[in-house]
Specification:
The protein is built from 3 helices and 6 strands; from the N terminus they run βαβαβββαβ. It is an alpha/beta fold.
Length: about 110
Amino acid sequence: MNMKILILKNGNKSQIRSLVDSGEYNIYNTLTLVLLTIITFLVRKMDHSKYSILMIVASTHGSSDKLAASDGSYCVYRTLMNPFLGRNCPSLVNKPKFFVIDVGFKMLL
């Protein structure tokens, strides 16, 4: 199984590295909202035909519907999930997509 893993992390890298034993992965730390948007745009435009699964791991603070970036908060569905669904990412159509959200609950402004 060939897996593409995108890891978005605010904090300890060692916790995330222990989650992935196989697959090709990229780790992005302490992202601003603009960088997060650019990264999801670039990743969704990639050719994922050689991968059978996409996994996105986000580890940050947040609530049930919003996660923290280094300079604000973002909607989980609109920012992380929607770019990789359906016609937004044609090379992932009919392929499983896993979204792992590790949230330390903290008040977001």
